[in-house]
Amino acid sequence: MAGEQRTAGAGLATLEDAARAATPSALEPREEIEREIRELLDRRAARAAAYGPTYAEVWEAASRCAQGGKLLRPRLLVDAFDALAAPQLRGSERRESALRIAAAIEILHFSFLLHDDVIDEDLLRRGTPNLIGELLRRQEAVDGDGQAPRGGAGGPLHWARSSGILVGDAMLSLVHQVFAREPLPEELRLRLLDLLDHTITESIVGECADVGLSDGIMPAELSAVLEMTRLKTATYTFELPLRAAAVLAGAVPRTETAIAAIARRFGVAFQLQDDLLSAFSSSDQHGKDPFSDFREGKETAIIAYARMTSAWPGIEPRFGAADFTDRDGAAIRAQLVACGAEEFIRSLVDEHLRAALELVSTTDGALPPALVDRLLRLVESLEKRRF
């Protein structure tokens, strides 16, 4: 499957689309998940109002930005819970707990996005203003001075970015409160809290590595980039919701261990596919500047491979250049294809998907048939996620 140039637009373009195609039953609890997210954010909005209009408006803007997504992670959790849980748990308080934990995981995702947007100095997400961009727009409308956004110490842009960090922290606090206060047996609650701590730690380490690699603090070796990919994406996008479902369903540790191994393979494959989409597809498919990874000097696995080839001296001078142009982007894209980087990363995606398929198919009874069926369909949809 590796190395074939796909037609633009073919296959599934986003991580959320892949999950939707693979787990159609996960659409059923969507309204329930949205309700839980609204309730969690609205309760905090009432508290925010007590601190005055400025913070209340910031929280209101953040709440709107946090809602309306495709809910990949919470839907994976609820769908996996329904596949794992005994019949008596599916209509019980335990399922209500699963919905609340799922909602908290979506809020965790948003908190990570907020911090990521600050780190990357982004004002847009999927072509529309993110929280920072929205706060900046509002403040400039109030100021009405027509001046360009200011950075550094002071000004609307500094305030908006600072608010992004602080709201991200507040969202993390909310997530911890949901996990800690959920009315579950103590053993299960502690397992969930340990899982949350593990997830946040790995995500932080992965983000730190991402920045360190791009800024030249860490050597940009392929093994380091792949480990960063696992830490930054696989743990919180797949391992957390799937393992949390196992805990909530009362699954034995053997089942949770099997799920974790499969989730890691899914996560790395997804992120490598996203890297391919960012590097070789159009902005219509991934919602970003078509050359943003090259423009920002982002150290992806594609670039790490290219560094080991004779093509790198021709790529390096314009990679991440301050005066980077679209012409540079097109030239780098062509060189990455010619040196075999695209083909190599496609082969890695296929390798991880084959490994996931093997794990799903050879669990020796560790996973119930209903979950095996869902995971097999997820593998199938990922294999079609091409461009």
Automatic annotation (TrEMBL):
UniProt cofactor(s): Mg(2+)
GO biological process, alphabetically ordered: isoprenoid biosynthetic process
GO molecular function, one term: metal ion binding
Region (Disordered): 1-28
UniProtKB keywords: Magnesium, Metal-binding, Transferase
Entries under Pfam families matching the protein: polyprenyl_synt
Taxonomic superkingdom: Bacteria
Family per similarity comment: Belongs to the FPP/GGPP synthase family.
Protein name per Swiss-Prot or TrEMBL: Polyprenyl synthetase family protein
Organism, scientific name: Leucobacter triazinivorans
